[in-house]
Amino acid sequence: MTESHDESTRRLALRIVTMPRDTNQYGTIFGGVILSYIDQAGFVECRRHGRHRWVTASLDRVDFRAPVHLGDIVSFYARPTRMGTKSITVRIEVEAERYTTQQRVRVTEATITLVSVDPAGNPIPYTSEPTIDDE
Ligand SMILES: CC(C)(COP(=O)(O)OP(=O)(O)OC[C@H]1O[C@@H](n2cnc3c(N)ncnc32)[C@H](O)[C@@H]1OP(=O)(O)O)[C@@H](O)C(=O)NCCC(=O)NCCS
User: Which of 83, 85, 115, 116 to mutate to test the pocket of ligand 1 (most atoms within 8 A of CB)?
Assistant: First the structure.
């Protein structure tokens, strides 16, 4: 598959296939489903930077540029745009590979900030010793 955007500055965080349960009353994919995956994609990126609990502090802006259809293969790419002390802001780019044509379309973009927290939920530097251990 040919990637249509710069792969050097972003990483694939998630790739999913849309299912009938994900559709709205119009037959396209419900925006809330995409938001949920954006949240997960942000987490996947942040976990690369610290083995902690990460909570979502803000979802700054979401642009739904094109609909996602049933059966599309949807990729969520992540790129940190701000490396703070206890937080990381991540740009998420979402692309759909159309079920019928395999055409790749940029469907959504969002910016999300996650904060690393200790077991009590207090923010901690994400470069600190891991707070999630092997069982
Ligand atoms: C996110 C949370 C831990 C922040 O706690 P806080 O005590 O206000 O955090 P602090 O002021 O000490 O800031 C800690 C870091 O978080 C960042 N931060 C805090 N609130 C933020 C916000 N709304 N947006 C972006 N970043 C934020 C700060 O910039 C700081 O980052 P830095 O150290 O890299 O500069 C707290 O508000 C919380 O638990 N929220 C609920 C999270 C949650 O449950 N998310 C799931 C949604 S259901």
Answer: 115
